[in-house]
């Protein structure tokens, strides 16, 4: 914990999004002294790409997004998503303060269904997020060719106990 406080406007604005649907998303930042989390921006824009374009390319932010998606056979669904935005090109000090302050903000926002992290725009693209939000219990991952081969061999060994696996 960094000892950073959460401004009351963060809680009020979140309740407006959650209960009154007054906002589609909220972007949070630290004040200039790095002592308090504040609301930087709210928007009613329905377009997900507009939300993504409001995330700075080289600075960290947190965001709440009221994510709407079509669930096959079940119609439209909404989930409130908490995004920790920490671009690769952000300054190290800023990344550290944002990482250590995240829990203070997240704990104060009751009703978040899914928590996501992003370090570049491709990670937070609509299709990537839709998949993660629709199935939050499944963690997407990327396997290197070596790890993929190892995983295949491991699966084979489960059905053929005579195979010895070495990491």
TrEMBL record:
The keyword tRNA-binding does not apply. SUPFAM superfamilies: Actin depolymerizing proteins. InterPro entries: ADF-H (IPR002108), ADF-H/Gelsolin-like_dom_sf (IPR029006), ADF/Cofilin (IPR017904). One of its GO terms (molecular function) is actin binding. Its main location: nucleus. The keyword Ion transport does not apply. Pfam families: Cofilin_ADF (PF00241). It comes from the Eukaryota. Keywords: Actin-binding. It is found in: Nucleus matrix. Residues 3-134 form the ADF-H domain. One of its GO terms (cellular component) is nuclear matrix. GO terms for biological process: actin filament depolymerization. This is Cofilin.
